[in-house]
Amino acid sequence: MHPRSALTLALALTTALSLPAQRIEVTIPATAPLNGHLILVITKKTDSEPRMQLEETYESAQGFGVDVENLSPNQPIVIDTKTIGYPRPTLSDIEPGDYTAQVVFNVYEPFHLASGKTLWLPPDKGEGQHWNLKPGNPYNAPVKLHIDPKSTTTLKLKLDKVIPPIEGTDADPAVMAAKDPGAKWLKFIRFKSEKLSKFWGRDMYLGAWVLLPDGFDEHPNAHYPLVVYQDHFHAAFGASAPFFSTPPNPADTGHKLQREKAGYQLFQDWTSGRTPRVILLYVQNANPYYDDSYDVDSANVGPYGSAINEELIPEIEHRFRGIGQGWARATFGGSTGGWEALATQIFYPDMYNGTWASCPDPVDFHAYQNINLYDDTNAFVRKGDFGEIPVAADRKPDGSIIATSQGEFRYEYVLGTHGRSTEQWNIWQAVFSPVGPDGYPKEALNSLTGVIDKDTVAYWHDHYDLNAILKRDWTTLGPKLEGKIHLAVGDGDTYFLNNAVHLLQSTLEDTRNPHSDATFQYGPGMPHCYTGGPAEYTMEQNNRTWAQRVLPQMTDHMLKTAPIGADTQSWRY
């Protein structure tokens, strides 16, 4: 560098550091040192509280995040021009103006793991790992602020409210089960897992919604197949397969009305004999990293695969007269649940007799959404000799890009460092990665630079790349998976998840001894959550009847493959 250029740069930096800069101070009434993560949200929209407006797309409100470790009570937490933000990088990038602001402090607790490590993490408190709804988190009512990054004024906020508990309210699953007229069929169980409790160093529970077949009480000698429905955390029974024993409320509209219609239609089909008589199980498995565990054993998230399949399911089948044999079990789910449904069938090939997976999370890390973890060097940009282009992350069905991978990783960093955002990219990292040197999940890619760690990716490949595992282990897995794999995805999937499904299909089409008979259905131009179905119906109509469509396919396959002497009659009354 020319000496004059160096002097010019030094003067510019000195001037920038000496410029006045606004800061925001947040205090939290407390009697003990604070540990957690503070999230400040500012917005110009007034249709909802700011804490509900932070999202991964370009339409997000502005957020800033600050780690807090052993902070003395009432000592201010500072947001200034050095604080990392999203979508704008820093407070300096905010235009002067009037905003509505709100702050939430996500409280962390110590987890003394069986490994000997102590980690500070946000426990799930029945809300499904939502920092802006978590019981016990301090927050403030929305306030008006005039923000001017060049001002020397210090803005002060105080968190004088606390999010109330869920237990005992209408949001509590136990209360829901007691009040629901459908309680005759629908049961809720809170199940303590010894395996998870040992791993996490504290009592850990799984929630289990059990939908019993019609006639369960009237046929005490019947035993039933078990179907596991995979989904994100929901306080009530399922999302794509809700169960409502009361007709829709005519005053409701939009998504709420459609959900009520779907739930009531399933109730009518379930109690009229139009669906096969099976036990339908939905498992709540929120954990300190996300609203879902991905139902596999993981170095960071714990032995959820073992807990669900070796502890919970045997208990459910014992308590509710399940047949309790591999030929009489199947699983289905979409998105996160789609990955879980496929992974469950692959990792427990003898325990399940079929998987129906739709829009699954990445099943091949050559297509980690729109990132090629094996061949790309950076997850945020692709470079040519003279230019570069950002890597897209979310899109509309018409191809319009609404989020980039760089923006989404920064969004999650604002919500929590060390993989503690409780959002999508961080849970994949927590599930798929080995433990890092600090005890938290080892990064597969840097959240702020996008640089990919190939050693960590190699671990992912060997342990959780489903396509790679099928290719590697086909000699032993192939014969156990015949007739069992069924996938559907929209070719306009919002998160580019169709790309990995196509790679999986190519692999399975090339298999021999046996040649895979897996089925694939693609929805031209269809977005995320496409579940397949007859082309004469809309995606929404097919999604509403997904359970009714796949349950007969499951039981037909069970009957065709049942071993000699199996109970194929007691449940078919």
Automatic annotation (TrEMBL):
The keyword Ligase does not apply. Gene3D superfamilies: alpha/beta hydrolase (3.40.50.1820). Residues 1-23 form the signal peptide. Pfam families: Esterase. The keyword Signal applies. Keywords: Signal. This is Esterase. It comes from Granulicella arctica.
